[in-house]
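We include the entry.

. . .
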Amino acid sequence: MSPLRIGPLELGSPVVLAPMAGITNVAFRTLCRELELERAGSTSGLYVCEMVTARALVERHPVTMHMTTFGPTETPRSLQLYTVDPEITYAAAKMIVDENMADHIDMNFGCPVPKVTRKGGGSALPYKRRLFGQIVAAAVKATEGTDIPVTVKMRIGIDAKHHTHLDAGRIAAAEGAAAVALHGRTASQRYSGTADWSEIARLKEHVTDIPVLGNGDIFAAEDAAKMMAETGCDGVVVGRGCLGRPWLFAELSAALNDKQIPTPPTLGEVAAIMLRHGRLLADHHGEDRGMREMRKHIAWYMRGFPAGSELRNGMARVSSLAELEGFLGQLDPTVPFPKDAEGPRGRQGSPGTVALPDGWLDDPEDTLVPEGADIMHSGG
């Protein structure tokens, strides 16, 4: 496995944890890093913080500031911005630089959520080529003279008739981005169907002076090696595949280093991981909020494992660490990892027409900042 260089950052692994809203907080990132170190003796290249809105960051919204929490030994600290306005982008990136908030800035141009694209944000924005370029340039300008690289994550385009990734990749590189990552789906596909890795290969052929990372349908260790071999991409970005499987990064590291892939955990080992996750969430959010957040993770962790309906229902309503520990103690620790737990996971959704602002497709050279597209705090 070759190391990955993103600007000044020399990363020991070409594997990146994708930012996922409500998922990749400091608790989950810490757990993933711990398990990779424990099971494979390595730490992946980047574990990216959940997406934050640039305007909310500049306005120091308390929820957003809490989302930017990093662990005391976490390095490099990677933060993703959602933004639509060059001026706000510059202010947010300059704030990150001046206050030493992160070591890497990623920019989200791939979110397909209707409430985001309807306002012209996320995966809708690269269609506006000049505005897209101005936003990337603003972030790069704010980080000039520092060791903080700026990268871009995007999709193939809006739909089958409006591909934007080749232009966006070229523009991002020209404006100083240190790498680009491509999810092999359009916004209209959302998370349905199969990611088109051939478009990742096309982008790699088109953008030759900075690394190109591939994203989409990496659900097993072998998938990462296969994507890199098929597309020639320089690294992989893993999102839904690690839901309920934070040890996946250890398996990815082993596969890419041509080492034996660690045996998947038994139910007893998974229970210990779940308890550690719950404690980390309680440390970050407080016990009440932490347990509410833990409930969705429990469903992913338990996929395919045997457990009675009464126990599953209890875990789905867990409200304290003591309660969580009690439920986990009722599981049979000897049960091996089930075959049914492998494969695609997380939200799928159905393909559909992308919600866009009126007249959005009329002029790709328009630089008018979308109105109200960044007035949100959750990151979408």
